[in-house]
Amino acid sequence: MxxxxxxxxxxxxxxxxxxGPIGAAAVTMTNKYHHLxxxxxxxxxxxxxxxxxxxxxxxxxxxxxxxxxxxxxRRRTPMDVTIHTDSKYAFGCMTQWWRKWMRNGFRxxxxxxxxxxxxxxxxxxxxxxxxxxxxxEWVWVPRSRxxxxxxxxxxxxxxxxxxEEDEDEDEGGPIWESWGRGGG
Length: 184
Description:
The protein is an alpha/beta fold and 184 residues long.
């Protein structure tokens, strides 16, 4: 019987912050006991955070979480991972556009490098690793069905604007984990 994970990913940014653009990404998961857990990261750049980069960063967090879980499971336990996102951009990157981009060397029709190539390539590598342990299903959901992850991101951005970054964070916005703390 496969291990099932259902994750909700969301990212956001505020480009007009006085110290420069800020962004955040979050992944939420509710276990079978209805315990909510979150994993988040702050984005401060470089490159400057955008909403698209924040959404892709949330996808990467979700895939990293699934990969970590697959490494904790017994060797032969398959995984069924479902990642929900309210970003049509991130959804398109992971379900449609990547094939054409790979054929074109990650270049657009105008022969320019695609935006956010670094994050798209990282997400594709992680997805391949997770696929080695099972399946990954991508689901686009309206924002109203992803509001918990959205609220986590908005709370992080509010705290960043107020100058309240987590003390455990290093420069550059690595993962700030709140697993087991009942949410972010």
